[in-house]
Each structure stands twice: as structure tokens, then as C-alpha cells.
Specification:
Blueprint (H helix, E strand, L loop, with lengths): L29 E7 L5 E6 L9 H19 L17 E3 L4 E6 L5 E6 L6 H17 L13 H11 L4
Helix pairs in contact: 2-3
Subunit structure: Part of the multisubunit transport protein particle (TRAPP) complex.
Family: Belongs to the TRAPP small subunits family. TRAPPC4 subfamily.
Organism: Xylona heveae (strain CBS 132557 / TC161)
Length: about 170
């Protein structure tokens, strides 16, 4: 086979999972999750993987408040006419070379910010699964007060088992 040009194989990259195929393969790179209440207050934050600079609790508070303000402003900066009956949305995705920030806002105004690898597939599925866990383990907890910091062990456990890779 001398002289024959064979294509170079791309380096193997881990396959990522979304909500639909969690049982198949368990590797995804989610750096952090932040939950912001409708007033812009930080009610939950958790880091899952190395890759982002370490932030202090105060940095997370500033980040939550800043994102809430930018999100509110971008709701009004829509250059296209809105579809009747559909509420305006603010910033949904922020991408950089080292991370991607995806925002999911609930109908009640709670925002879920997910920091992932820039090329992480199926982020919508991942963030919706996180919201499903939030609904099941936080909102159905009779001791949780709405808009207050989330301190729910069941939510932490299920979130960690969903997001953290299984070896």
C-alpha cells in the first residue's frame, strides 16, 4: 500500500450525553451551574469540573447580579419584530474560547446558567434535565421557601449523579 494516502483519523473525543441518552454513556463536561431568582439573587451555585478559574462566593454573587441586569436589558434590544403572544427573551447563550454559558429562564423568572465546554452538544437537553431535577427535588420539598437559597440534599445528590461522569 505504499504511496497510498490514507486519511488521518481524528483524535478520539469523548461522546457526550443529553437527557435522552443518559443511560448509554456518562461523560459530559459541565463546569458549573448557577441558579438566579427572579430578583437577580444567587440562590444556588455548584462547580462540577475543573476548567474555569476559581471564583469566590462574592464573585458568584456579582456574576448573578450582573447577568440578571444584562438579561433584563437584552429583553428590550430585540431588532426583529416579536411574534404576537410570545414573551421577549433576553440573552440565552454567551460563547468564548474556553466555555459556553447557556441560560434557561423559567416562566416564573428563575434563571439556570450552565457553564460547559464550548462544543458541548445537547446543552438544551442537559439544562432541561437540571430543571426537571430542580422541579422534582426542590420545588416539591415542603421545607423549601421560594426565592430563597437552595439547600436540598436530594437535589445535590441527583444533580451530581446526572452531571458528574461515571468511570
Amino acid at each position: 500500500m505504499a504511496g497510498r494516502n490514507l486519511p488521518l483519523e481524528a483524535p478520539l473525543r469523548p461522546r457526550y450525553v443529553g437527557a435522552a441518552d443518559v443511560a448509554e454513556w456518562k461523560v459530559m463536561v459541565v463546569f458549573a451551574l448557577i441558579v438566579i431568582n427572579k430578583a437577580g439573587g444567587l440562590i444556588y451555585h455548584r462547580e462540577f469540573h475543573e476548567g474555569l478559574n476559581k471564583l469566590s462566593v462574592n464573585d458568584y454573587l456579582v456574576l448573578a447580579g450582573t447577568f440578571h441586569g444584562v438579561h433584563a436589558i437584552t429583553k428590550n434590544l430585540c431588532p426583529l419584530p416579536r411574534t404576537p403572544g410570545q414573551p421577549p427573551t433576553g440573552i440565552e447563550v454567551l460563547e468564548s474560547e474556553s466555555f459556553r454559558l447557556q441560560c434557561f429562564q423559567t416562566l416564573t423568572g428563575t434563571k439556570f446558567l450552565l457553564f460547559t465546554e464550548p462544543h458541548q452538544p445537547n446543552i438544551d437537553g442537559i439544562i432541561r434535565k437540571v430543571y426537571e431535577l430542580y422541579s422534582d427535588y426542590v420545588m416539591k420539598n415542603p421545607f423549601y421557601q421560594i426565592e430563597m437559597p437552595i439547600r436540598c440534599d436530594a437535589f445535590d445528590r441527583h444533580l451530581a449523579s446526572y452531571i458528574k461522569p461515571r468511570q
